[in-house]
Amino acid sequence: MPYDIVVEGLHKQYGRLHALKGVSFKVPRGSVYGLLGPNGAGKTTTIRILVGLIKPSGGKALIRGYRAGSILAKRYVGYAPERFSIAGSWRLLDFLVYIGRLYGMPRREAVEKALGLLDWVGLGSFEDERFAGLSAGMKRRLGLAQALMGDPSILVLDEPTEHLDALGRVELLGKIRSLAGEGRTVLFSTHVLAEAEQVVDRYAIIHRGRIVYEGSRGGSRSNRLARIEVDRPDALALALDAAGFNYSIQGNQFLVDTRGEEERVLRLILETGVRLLKYEAGLGITETFLRVVEGGVE
Amino acid sequence: MSDNSLSRLLRLLSMDTRILAGSGGFIAYMLFVLLPSVIALYVAGLFWMPQSRQAVLALEFAEPGIDVYKALYSEYIGTVKSLSGMVTGFWAGFPMLVMASLVASSFISGERGNGTFDLLATKPVRRFELVLSKVLGFMLLSLITLLVVHTTNILIVAASFYNGLGAGAVLHALADALKYVGYYTTVSWLYVLAVTGLTLLLSTQTKKIYIVVLGVVGYYIGLAITGQVVSGLVGGAVAQEINTILLNADFSYHANIILSKWVFGTLSNIPYQGIKPSYHGSLAALTIVPVLLLSAALIVIERRDLD
């Protein structure tokens, strides 16, 4: 499976603050990938490295095999930041044409593309408006339009639904799916889990600078997190440690990252000889998130 | 379309120059630059024009057979020097420092403050290209503005003589005097470049325009104060020499004064001949300092994290 984004052992340090502590994940081509996590978890730092705004302190981030931030990598990426803002004096059409020209488009082609995109994001009649006159929601729409000006194969969206009303959110999530349907790869960050549930193919949960969970959307088959209750938790803990599984434990209840190897986990339980009281797999994204972040599977 | 650094830079230069030329900030700056010419026109109309008429009449009356061309040329050149000196002195002074710094600080600090720069930095261009295109556009527009200012000054003086004498005498003197347009434009232009370089270097460290402008102004004031303080503390001839060296050390600011003195032929009046730079030496220093400042700014903005 080809991967559009490969992140391996990414570190970022700001003085004493270790914002990223070895983040690794891969985004398959043509998929919608969610980077989920609470505020301050490291989502935006990861994204800013991917689009070339900041440099990693260690590890690597590749876009289609090119170093993130290089000119070649940036050609593939369209980015809409969390707080999209430009000088208030820009007229919307002029700004999008300017962006198009940065990609080497002839002016006429850039104008056509810009008008089409303004229409697509619902700003069709605002081409001559200035940025300062837009509402927060309209600014977000413009943010998406400018990200698409270079016709990128990869879209990186940081909290794309922030500042949108309910209808705007539904529309935008639909657009994300349709963009993926055109063969684009979409990486987006959010702390609104219900949105992730609706659109992602795969997702990673980032917490305190680490990826603590990576999984797929969907039911028990594809989800890796399992809740297990046994009579002798110490024995199972030893077995899980020996086999290298990540887990958290509360009393005699385990939350185990099965890595998709549920059979192996079950076999471990049998081999250990502990009595299985409860086994629940395939938790949804929201429940997984809450359990991972609050329960601390690391 | 080919997409190397040069083609991207030229594309950006064409777009940014047009945007800058139409921006409120640059229009205010341009009016400010042109202001001395307006003042010069007013002064010439009120004072020099009738004075020059009287000078011609007085010459012909007092000394029949005098070489009128030579006498008037001498007076004309003197007037050109006075007027251009006034304009250059005004231009290189404190108000222009603030105006040029205000425009240049918008290239990085201003655009970082409103979010534009960070967004454009994620597009397939190098950050230094985003800045350099604006600097080149600004310097190109400044050059045109300065040429207009200095040419206007000389033409205004010529007009004041035209009323008193035939066109032949005016053209004769004008042709020789036009070379001063080159001198003053070069000096003023390099001064703007120096202020721009220093402004951009400070801009790489903060998004707040007022901090950058205060920093630039503080740098120039600090330089003068340092000289005075050292002079006061040490005293005597040594202190004077240190003070002069410090004041002359910053060629980006003071070389223009030295160049002006060279043009006026009064360079020998500067004390401490040992540190007296030549015209070309001053010109080289006035070029190298801003280029170094600008290069440092471009390297820093290319490498630093944008957070």
Describe the structure.
Chain A has ten helices and 14 strands. In chain A, α8 packs across α9. Chain A folds into two domains: 213 residues, P-loop containing nucleotide triphosphate hydrolases (Rossmann fold), CATH 3.40.50; 58 residues, Alpha-Beta Plaits, CATH 3.30.70. Chain A is α/β, with parallel strands linked by helices and 298 residues long. Chain A starts with a strand and ends with a helix. With 307 residues, chain B is an all-alpha fold. About 9% of the residues of chain B have low confidence. The interface between A and B is medium-sized, with 29 and 25 residues.
Which quaternary structure do these chains form? heterodimer
User: For the largest beta sheet of chain A, what order do the strands appear in spatially?
Assistant: 6-7-8-3-9-10
Indicate the mean pLDDT of chain B.
Answer: 75
Strand element count of chain B: 0
